[in-house]
Amino acid sequence: MAMTSATIESLIKEAFPDANVVVAPLADDGDHFAARVSTPVFAGLSRVKQHQMVYAALKGKMGNELHALALETSVPTSKE
Amino acid sequence: MSEIADRIKGVIAGDDVVLFMKGVPAAPQCGFSAAVVEVLAQLNVPFKSVNVLADGEIREGIKEFSDWPTIPQLYVKGEFIGGCDIVREMYQSGELKTMLDDKAVGLARN
Questions:
Q1: What value of ipTM does the predicted structure carry?
Q2: SS3 assignment, position B73
Q3: Residue A35 sits at the chain B interface (C-beta within 8 Å)
Q4: In terms of Cα–Cα distance, which of A32, A38, A44, A42 is closest to A72?
Q5: What is the pLDDT of residues B33-87, one digit of tens each?
Q6: What chain A residue is nearest to B67 in terms of C-alpha separation?
Q7: Is some CB atom of chain B closer than 8 A to the CB atom of A70?
Q8: Which chain A residues have a beta carbon less than 8 Å from that of B82?
Q9: Which of B70, B82, B86 sits opposite A63 (nearest CB)?
Q10: pTM for the whole thing?
Q11: Does A47 contact B69 at a Cβ distance shorter than 8 Å?
Q12: Is B9 inside any structural domain?
């Protein structure tokens, strides 16, 4: 089943309630998306670890229903 | 460790830079694999490539091995560096070149 940006966003938000999450489709095929996830939880963690945590939030969908998710993770730089 | 994990370990230990990808460097079968090949070419780094499309056991095994759900995957001196997004980000920031220089990768060959 094709996924939507909203499904991906809610799965990520569920795992990282404090995160700033932006998800957008890269193509109209329902399995290529781009996501930007920014949360203080990532502080001090390697990029690999940060991405692994996001993949875990997607509960096995990554690499299956979801063929590609271009991911950009970061720690918020200022307290806004 | 399973047999396939041992096999993957052997491959990763065999070369300084190992890229698990879809297709071969001259003809990548996926845009994300192509992007990593392009980065390595830009940096003029010799690397060994493993075509996961030609080896179903490695294709599944590598995902479990690194706890990483997608291909491509880049390894430098046995260490998992990341997938396409991370490699591209590290290339753009210059971090990848610094890391390769620090590990003296690609200097002794050719």
A1: 0.84
A2: strand
A3: no
A4: A38
A5: 999 999 999 999 999 999 999 999 999 999 999 999 999 999 999 999 999 999 9
A6: A52
A7: yes
A8: 47-48, 51
A9: B70
A10: 0.89
A11: no
A12: yes
Of B78, B81, B77, B30, the closest CA to residue B51 belongs to: B30
In a domain, B110, yes or no: no
What is the domain count for chain B?
1
Is B59 among the domain residues?
yes
For residues A61, A42, A27 and B62, what is the CA-based torsion angle, rounded to 10 degrees?
Answer: -50
In a domain, B47, yes or no: yes
Q: Which positions 39-68 of A are in contact with B (Cβ < 8 Å)?
A: 47-48, 51-52, 55, 60, 62-64, 68
Are B55 and B71 spatial neighbours (Cβ–Cβ below 8 Å)?
no
pLDDT digits (tens, 9 = 90+) for A19-56: 999 999 987 777 789 999 999 999 999 999 999 999 99
Contact across the interface for B81 and A48, Cβ inside 8 Å: yes
The whole-angstrom separation of Cα B32 and Cα B84 is 6
How many domains are there within chain A?
1
Kindly state whether A71 is in contact with chain B, defined as any CB-CB distance less than 8 angstroms.
Answer: yes
Instruction: For residue B43, give the amino acid letter.
Output: L
